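User: Predict the complex with iron/sulfur cluster.
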Amino acid sequence: MNNNVRSYKAQKVLERMGKKLNRQMVGSLAACVHCGMCTDACHYVLANPGDVTYAPAYKADKIRKLFKRHFDWTGRVIPWWVSAKSVYTDDELEELKDTVFGKCTNCRRCSINCPMGVDYATFNRMARGLLVSVGVMPEGVAVVSKDQWEIGNQMGVLKEDYVDTLEWLSEEMEAEHSDPKATIPIDKMDADIVYSINPREVKYDPRTISDAALIFYAAGEDWTMPSEGWDMTNFGLFSGDDDLGGAVAKRLYDKVTELRGKTLVISECGHGYRSTRCEGPNWAKMNVDFVMESSVDTMLRYIKEGRIKVDKSKNTTPVTFHDSCNNARSCGLTEEPRELLNLVCSDFREMYPNRAENYCCTGGGGAMSMSEYTPQRLKSAKIKADQLKATGAEIVVTSCHNCVDGLADLIKHYKLGMQVTQLVNLVANALVIEKKVAVPVGEVPAEAEALAGRKILVIDDEPDIVTFISAILEDNGATVFKAYSGDEAIAIAQKEKPDMMTLDISMPGKSGIEVFEELRSLDDLKSIPVCIITGKPELRKLIYDRQVLPPEGYLDKPITEEGLLVNVRKILELVHEK
Amino acid sequence: MSDLLHFSEHILQEVALVFMAIVYTLRLTWLLRFKAGGDRQAPTGTAGYTTPRRGIIYSWLNIASPWAMESTRTQFFFYIQFVLFHLGVVSAIGLSFVIPYAPSLLESSLLVLILQISVGAAFAIGVGRMIRRIFAKYIRAISTPDDYFSLLLLTVWFGFAFFAVPNSTVNGEWHLLTYFFLTAFFLMYVPFSKISHYLYYPFTRYYLGRTMGHRGVYPIRRAPRTQN
Ligand code: SF4
Ligand code: SF4
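Assistant: Here is the predicted structure with iron/sulfur cluster placed in the model:
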């Protein structure tokens, strides 16, 4: 190596590569015969016909040429003969970054289609890790990794917000079932089940937590949720940073051990399941002596053991199932979700190809956090969109939060008009629960009054959206003010001092991000809670980049009535309790 | 038989084989110097359906199970070419042992015919592959000089093997000489080229199979396509 002409970062990447290589990776790097059999396995190739830079072997060769130049015989002696090439500049590292992060979701579909058994996804992850180790990575990867290192979870959810949310959901459930046992126990010692979740559930989708809680309650489970170390997701899988992976996994394992939990149940999340259940012990270099399972297994067991009763006639809309790559191609979780779906839905339609051969949601491998690659991600999503459309289903079910976001995004982009949901939602909906306490039905307080007396400002440049949101809020008793631009919003907010605001990010003129920043900087408005509403989830991180207090809530488009009400009520209750 | 042909059939081949064996041993030692990654996790997947052992066997047999991978199912013609090409390699290598050590076997015109069909087909496929490597955009983009040279070497070798099969010197020795010199060069060049992939195959497939079997992925399951 010529140290005089190689940048510091390039030098470090090569040095660290030598330490990262194991026998499996060396085999994969040395064995490719350039046959091209893997080409059509990749959704990027299929969606970009003729663009060779998306071909798995082409992308793999960007890493392979480094390996050949520095570690393989022929490449060290006559590099040009085997296209071996070193890396010298930071610009070359940036180019490599665009390949390993921007052109591959590490979905492993090419790996299972290679006759030689070349596992490209595995060494692509290694290359990501090498780049991350020298600070070359997409901005979103840096932000999320930082949150997971520093705050302990991917989305920077603070402990008090997490606990507040659980308590709020717990109170709601207790009230709804009029049963003091219908709660979410936090940090209960010696529980049979410790339930870990994805921070996305706290932030954007609390219904998945309440649905899971309802199922545990209905099953009479002895369960708990930890107050800390509860995040089962692991950005180390996406960033290739084994140290982060190990630290995050260990945090969770240590908490379960501290609580003396018997089984760690991992809520529906592909990369979370793979990281916690499969890779975590390797990264953390520790053996785990409690049982770990996916909540899909737990729910299926409850039904089989008769601990919960379900009625599939409660879910009659046609559904299809999307296999998360991490669940299907790296953990073999393919049959259980289908078995469960068939028990709780009356019209399940298989998707083709399926199981380990299913296509990526195209938001995998951390792609949802890399906004710079969004256009190519959405273009490559055409394959998935066609696959979804061909099923004729109206709902796509997936056992992965990342896939929920990826699928929702492509469904919106390709105007498929489908809904995305998870098994936990369908199981909860199909539950048959015998009421423990009979409440004499008098005049039930109308749901419509849930927001009575609340003033809410709705800010969106799309009149249809404003009308839709306003109608829901007004139906529930709120007084609604409407603003169609940033300036108008600030003027109304100053005049009316609403209890909260919903704010669209993508608006012409003054963007939602600028409006948000301005609202937070004005003394009379900065304490008004804001719920960000966006059709581009990857833009959320831009909000976090601001030097102001983060918003109180997020909601992704397309908005559902239920999702909107849950979020609005939660924000109002939490903020006004404080 | 001339001294040169005798030399090329015996001493040259033996030296080349010893050289190849030494280099391969070094190559394997190099590969084994890298630590194998372990797997601490408890098995995943449907209990009883997959195990590391089943995964390894499935993975090793993958190449003989064209239905197992989407890539071979959908490119079946290419798969057939692959099979014939590799049968040609086995025939051409076998020939380099049969001629010097068991020439009487070639008195069987049936064996001669089988070997000629085998290496002849491999030759035709080699030509086709070369055309594909030059003209197919995706393949050209990933091809190295070694890819072209290795393919050319094998194709030319098959061509001379075709003429060498009858082991006849009636029309001169040039075809046999060229075949044996090419075989020797081939044996010595292989460890430094992509042709050595078969050395890695058992390893890559073993580890992939072990992991995928332990994690419930291998053997892969699919639902047959039906109308919705
Ligand atoms: S990765 Fe496998 S399938 Fe793809 S070109 Fe290389 S050997 Fe062929
Ligand atoms: S891992 Fe997936 S996205 Fe990456 S090259 Fe292979 S098939 Fe394409």
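Residues A 41-42, 44, 56, 59, 104-110, 120-121 surround iron/sulfur cluster (ligand 2) (CB under 6 Å).
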